[in-house]
Amino acid sequence: MKHLLNRLIFAAAAFIAVAPAMAASDKGSAEEATALVKKVIAYYKANGKEKTFAAINAQNPDFKFKDLYVFGSTAKEGMPLSAHGANPKMVGKDMGMLKDAEGFPFAKRIIEIATSKEGKGWVDYKWPNPVTKAIEAKSTYVERVDDVYFACGIYK
After folding, report:
1. 152 Rama sector, left if φ>0, alpha if ψ -120 to 50, beta otherwise
2. Coiled coil located at which positions (predicted)?
3. Which of 2, 45, 46, 114 is deepest in the core (most CB within 10 A)?
């Protein structure tokens, strides 16, 4: 009985020690977010805008990885969000005036990057993490193709 108790205590201690690492591995990386956007762009090039937005809105598992999801819209200020891979309530809303927890107009910055000459880049802002419910630093990769953009963000 004493050996069983020691084993249980050891197992519990081991789990507590590795739990943070396990949680971290569930978070997507910058490279994974960029790769997910590139995957959606390849799908877009093969299937067109409407099918791509529909697939994202249907939460196609091909466009989700770990805690990552894709969103996108027409790359023009004032256009409503066309697709959101995690929250369908966001679709159809004008995101242009949306600000982060510190008042930074990150959605406007996403459009600025999407409509820039290069058409791609990262935006840093503070946003509620749906898992932890805390305001956390977030970076979103955005890339334009034709007249649309696709984006995917990571919590740091």
Report:
1. beta
2. none
3. 114
- Residues paired with 83 in a beta bridge: 72
Please, are residues 141 and 124 in contact by the beta-carbon 8 Å criterion?
no
**Residue that has been written with the tokens 């066309």 in this structure:** 82
Per-residue model confidence as pLDDT tens digits over 22-44: 345 689 999 999 999 999 999 99
What residues have CB less than 8 Å from 13, skipping those under 6 apart? none
Residue 94 neighbours by CB under 8 Å, 6+ apart: 78, 79, 80, 81
Which domains are assigned to the chain? 29-155 (3.30.450.20)
What six digits make up the tokens of 119?
A: 């058409």
User: What is the secondary structure of the chain as a DSSP string?
Assistant: -HHHHHHHHHHHHHHHHHHHHHHHHTSPPHHHHHHHHHHHHHHHHHH-HHHHHHHHHTT-GGGEETTEE-EEEESSTTPBP-EESS-GGGTT-B-TT---TTS--HHHHHHHHHTSSS-EEEEEEEEE-TTT-SEEEEEEEEEEETTEEEEEEEE-
Q: What is the pTM of this model?
A: 0.82
Mean pLDDT, residues 90-114: 93
Beta bridge partners of 69: 64
